[in-house]
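Design job #97: recover the sequence.
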């Protein structure tokens, strides 16, 4: 009987994760997907969905929170102190691009107009500022460019890539975003082509 509570909690967390993943996929495929569509895609009953999310807005709020947390994890896991600054930036780009489907519904639903989402997204990208500063000290990144500008440009390029249609492969999107960014910020001591 003592195991009943932890097992139930694990099931609740598992179902929540399944629902968030299903919602990201369903809304990326069809921005007008209903909560019923999300429940079907998750393979769970509508009642289970409603126990977690009482409305479409509560589901979108949870997706925003989840996307920011995923972005934080990706940026933190990009080994921002390893290699050159440009190599670290490329790892950040690759990690965020891999989350593209998770961000697409949010951008289509207007998250880019939500000040709280924007604040939290900027906070998630704070380690990128450290990368840029390191790159400026090493001469890899132009010193005359504002660190804040580089971070904002990166976020804008990533948002544009997420909004694009899916005709490009993930690797092509990484190269497009990173190539565009790096061409504009490379300093005289850069080793990147």
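Job complete. Output follows.
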């Amino acid at each position: 009987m003592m195991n009943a509570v932890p097992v139930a909690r694990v099931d609740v967390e598992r179902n929540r994760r399944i629902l968030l993943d299903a919602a990201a996929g369903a809304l990326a495929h069809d921005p007008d997907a209903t909560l019923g569509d999300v429940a079907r895609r998750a393979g769970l009953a509508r009642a289970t969905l409603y126990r977690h999310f009482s409305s479409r807005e509560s589901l979108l709020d949870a997706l925003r929170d989840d996307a920011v947390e995923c972005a934080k994890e990706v940026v933190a896991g990009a080994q921002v102190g390893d290699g050159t600054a440009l190599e670290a930036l490329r790892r950040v780009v690759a990690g965020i691009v891999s989350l593209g489907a998770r961000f697409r519904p949010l951008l289509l639903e207007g998250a880019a107009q939500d000040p709280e989402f924007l604040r939290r997204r900027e906070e998630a990208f704070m380690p990128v500022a450290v990368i840029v500063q390191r790159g400026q000290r090493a001469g890899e990144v132009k010193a005359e460019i504002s660190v804040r500008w580089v971070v904002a440009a990166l976020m804008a390029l990533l948002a544009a890539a997420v909004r694009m249609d899916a005709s490009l492969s993930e690797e092509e999107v990484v190269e497009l975003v990173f190539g565009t960014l790096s061409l504009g910020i490379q300093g005289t001591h850069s080793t990147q082509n």
